[in-house]
Write a structure and sequence with these properties.
Elements lengths: L1 E10 L2 E11 L4 E5 L6 H8 L7 E6 L2 E2 L11 E4 L11 H12 L5 H10 L15 H14 L4 E5 L7 H13 L4 E5 L3 H7 L2 E6 L2 E6 H7 L8
Length: 225
């Protein structure tokens, strides 16, 4: 599903990613873990084609990520840490706006499904400015899920959310089926609950573990238990 081979990225004289190689297979849920400044955002932006690949290669579903070929984009959906929503619009109006931006025909049945899946159907006609942070994040996730992409990349999906909001987001993630997910996280408890694997980025190098292997061998400062 995601195959990264000898990926290197640098800024000036600083090497951020040093010949990184990684495979994330179908239906795996991988946590991207590393201390602040380790290069997680650089890695995600490379996967999304936002940063050009300077050395090495990235393939999504067997299609190389390049500027000349955008077929790979159909397989992937991205939820940034802060989703830019329109506060004066309702939840339903927001998701409808983004749905119309990606397709000519808006699938109202699909909108219904994803709003219900994130428990926002009852609040669909409420202006987003009145949503809690957890509701805002769930609406962003609903917009991401609308595309029904096979691969999801989620950047700190529970960042800054209270414990109840985190629980709601995790319940949604656990309910997803037939999705390959890469999510960056600082919370070991949500990694335990949701993920099958951990991708650990440290000093430009990357290693992949099962969750059990990672928890048994790594005790990290800056990562919350």
């Amino acid at each position: 599903m995601i195959k990264v081979t000898d990926l290197s990225q640098s800024f000036g004289k600083k090497t951020v990613l040093d010949a990184v190689t990684l495979e994330i297979n179908k239906n795996e849920i991988c946590a991207l873990v590393g201390r602040n400044g380790a290069g997680k955002s650089t890695f995600i932006n490379s996967l999304l084609g936002l940063l050009p690949v300077k050395q090495g290669s990235i393939a999504i579903n067997g299609i190389e990520v390049t500027k000349k070929n955008d077929e790979w984009k159909k397989a992937i959906a991205y939820l940034p840490e802060k989703f830019m929503l329109y506060p004066m619009l309702t939840g339903l109006e927001n998701i409808t706006f983004f749905a119309e931006a990606v397709s000519k025909m808006t699938d109202v049945v699909r909108i219904d499904q994803v709003l219900r899946s994130v428990s926002l159907w009852d609040d669909r006609d409420v202006q987003v400015k009145k949503y809690s942070k957890g509701m805002l994040q769930r609406l962003g996730l609903a917009i991401t899920l609308y595309q029904d992409s096979s691969i999801l990349i989620l950047d700190e999906p529970t960042s800054g959310i209270d414990p109840m909001g985190r629980k709601e987001i995790l319940e949604v993630l656990k309910s997803l089926h037939n999705k390959t997910i890469l999510l960056s996280s600082h919370h070991l408890d949500e990694i335990r609950q949701v993920c099958t694997h951990v991708v650990y980025l440290n000093e430009g190098k990357m290693e992949k573990f099962t969750v059990g292997e990672f928890l048994a061998t790594h005790h990290l400062g800056g990562i919350e238990s």
